[in-house]
Amino acid sequence: MSLNRRQLLFAAPAALTGRLAARARYPERPVTLVDPFTAGSSTDYFSRVLATEMGKLWGQPVVVENKAGGGGSVGAETVVRAAPDGYVLGMASVSTLVSNPVLNRMQHYDPLADFTLISTLVTVPSATVVLASSPLKTLDDLVKAARARPGGVSFASPGVGSAGHVLLEHFSHLAGAKFNHVPYRGGGPLQTELLGGQIDAASENLPLLMPHIQSGRLRVLAVRDLQRLSQLPEAPTFKELGYEPVSQPLWFGLVGPAGLPRDVVQRLCDATHQAVRAPGFRQQAERVAATVSSGTPEQFRAQVGRWLDQYEVMVRTTRMRPERAERANDSIHASGTG
């Protein structure tokens, strides 16, 4: 036997043992958590506290990196391209795993094949809001204004292809009203122009809106949840106002690139479940009426599959055209940055 062949025979098991040992010590260095929206957005609200709690558990920093654009697709693609070693993870949302893939057939990733789905994190209500000084007092007022001036009432979403965009189109269809959709690169820029009076109405998740609702700067017209929230008892749900198909709250989860080793996935699941049960995470969730909803990778995959089916129906019903979404991503609202 030649020396080179002998070296290879002994080196292969040694290399495998080394990789297994490294995985057993995972994580040995800082982990990056890619957030697909801007700093200050609703996903960012939970990314920061999740990173803090997981960093405490591991004794290693978890660094949040915001990669906004394309209704969440830019950040999602960053995770897809990462090495499957557990050192690049992603904050996932209905926008990244459901609405964007359904709406945009030119998307560069498959939500079920190109990610390792690790665990859901929280269920998050959202709300349709206007400035407190707006003449629109109710959701019915908003609908009537849009019917009276088709395309004349501006309604913002966090981006083309986002869950907010698809839900707005479905709501418009159900209400028989035509809005002027104004997409932004995430909730931060949306919030700035909403508060500045540049847009008439917007729907966003409560982590972004709650401080301004509580301060009295924003008025809630309807909440996207299946029942009224204890934090906003006066705000009706879309369901009770006759729009049940768009009343379901959204959710966030943790993902990695496809091909993560099973032992790394298990370590990530265990750490995630501990992190979301930590007092710091639970307190942050309660402040914005969110509900902790961790689960297994299999449960997460099943949930994404159900939602993909639901959003396929919405897109067909409203006749949203994917090619319109692609063009709009190239001319996203100028104020959106990130």
From TrEMBL:
This is Tripartite tricarboxylate transporter substrate binding protein. InterPro entries: BUG, Bug_dom1. SUPFAM superfamilies: Periplasmic binding protein-like II (SSF53850). Belongs to the UPF0065 (bug) family. It holds the Pfam family TctC. It comes from the Bacteria.
